[in-house]
Design a protein that fits this description.
The chain is α/β, with parallel strands linked by helices and 389 residues long. It contains 15 helices and 15 strands. Helix 5 runs parallel beside helix 6, helix 13 packs parallel to helix 15 and helix 14 crosses helix 15.
């Protein structure tokens, strides 16, 4: 492996939300954080190099995005995911959540129903409620140890008048990589009932062998016409602090509406650093990604084996993608307060408590595996020892 993912990088006192907020958020500065979804790995060398070069310019004036930036995106998705994207379908926005919120605001009306498949990434709830829309939950079903969509219930929500669905593909926190057949069934219902699909696909590059990612909008031109896809290089290459993402919208009328609002809000200007970092990531950092995925999968396997031996009451949901491991801790407690006490007071670790992803997540914990093995080993030991105690 060409990259050293075992290296311990001191992130304290760097204004790191993950590391420097543990006392504020969890009550103790000694807590080991494996929660918020950023990595404790250096970003790829090509990315760091181009950012350093941009910094050395010494003048941080207004910038514009270049054709080569757009080509890096379209080439990446064609090469890695066999998805042909046209450059003029791409609209830059600061974050995936920005795309979700704008889509709800622009393509639904106050009081409309928006479907989510819970448990799911917690900002899904915020952007629906914050825009004055109604949350309609289509809970995922646990079948044979992995999540499946409840299509019968979903159709009742679509038939009752839901205008939009927020899809998480791959799924966070469950690590489920939706197969083409599943997405095709969803697409059939969405087309039948004229429901817009806004698909958060930020984890698309983080899937493991035998679980290929299928872009929802790639199913057909007809499906793409009702889809807004939210994407970013930030999760893939550990760039979340650069606040860069893009929406892919092939429907020209929807894209015009979306693009106009982005410009009205003046969030369309290119960052001095971000576009160059994205270009270096997509053009020069694929081997880094391949090596990182192997390392993270090793962390996943280690965690599953360790918990089976030292904390068998915990049942991990085997992840098909993302660097997040979803732990079923209901045999210990389904009470969020009990699990928080166990983590923060006794084990001195911070995982994500599951009810933040919806009521279906109560009794579960989400653990970030994108860290050096030694950090993971220490966190799991402290957690298992606290359970035994």
């Amino acid at each position: 492996m060409a990259y050293n993912f075992d290296e311990l990088i001191e992130r304290r006192n760097t204004r790191s939300y993950k590391w420097d907020q543990v006392k504020t958020l969890f009550g103790d500065e000694d807590i080991l954080p494996l929660w918020v979804a950023d990595m404790d790995f250096y970003s790829p060398p090509a990315v760091r190099k181009v950012i350093q070069e941009r910094a050395e310019i010494g003048i941080f004036g207004y910038s514009f995005r270049t054709p080569s930036y757009l080509e890096s995106i379209t080439n990446w998705f064609k090469r890695r995911h066999q998805w042909t994207i046209k450059s003029d379908w791409i609209v830059d926005v600061p974050s995936v959540v920005t795309t979700l919120s704008l889509s709800i605001d622009l393509f639904t009306e106050k009081g409309d129903s928006v479907v989510i498949q819970s448990p799911v990434y917690y900002p899904f709830y915020d952007v629906i409620k914050g825009n004055g829309r109604k949350i309609e939950r289509n809970p995922l079903q646990m079948i044979n140890g992995r999540y499946e969509m409840d299509f019968a219930h979903l159709e009742t929500l679509f038939a009752a008048g839901a205008k939009m669905m927020l899809l998480c593909n791959p799924h966070n926190p469950g690590g489920r990589v939706w197969e083409r057949e599943t997405l095709e069934r969803l697409a059939q219902l969405a087309l039948q009932y004229n429901v817009i699909i806004v698909s958060d696909e930020i984890h698309c590059d983080l899937t493991f062998p035998e679980h290929p990612y299928t872009p929802f909008a790639s199913l057909s031109e007809e499906v793409a016409n009702i889809t807004v896809t939210a994407l970013a290089a930030t999760k893939t290459f550990n760039l979340p602090g650069l606040h860069t993402s893009f929406a892919v919208i092939s429907n020209p009328s929807m894209r015009a509406i979306f693009d106009q609002r982005v410009k009205v809000l003046s969030i369309h200007m290119a960052s001095h650093f971000a576009q160059d970092a994205v270009q270096a990531a997509y053009n020069e950092s694929e081997q880094w990604l391949e090596d990182m995925l192997v390392y993270v999968k090793g962390n996943m396997d280690y965690a599953v084996a360790y918990l089976a031996e030292h904390a068998p009451a915990i049942k991990p949901l085997l992840s098909e993608g993302t660097y997040l491991l979803w732990l079923d801790c209901r045999a210990i407690s389904e009470e969020p307060a009990v699990l928080k006490e166990l983590m923060h007071k006794k084990a001195k670790v911070a995982f994500n408590e599951g009810s933040m992803f919806g009521v279906e997540g109560a009794g579960w914990l989400r653990v970030n595996m994108a860290c050096p093995r030694s950090i993971l080993e220490q966190a799991l030991k402290q957690f298992a020892d606290a359970i035994k105690g």
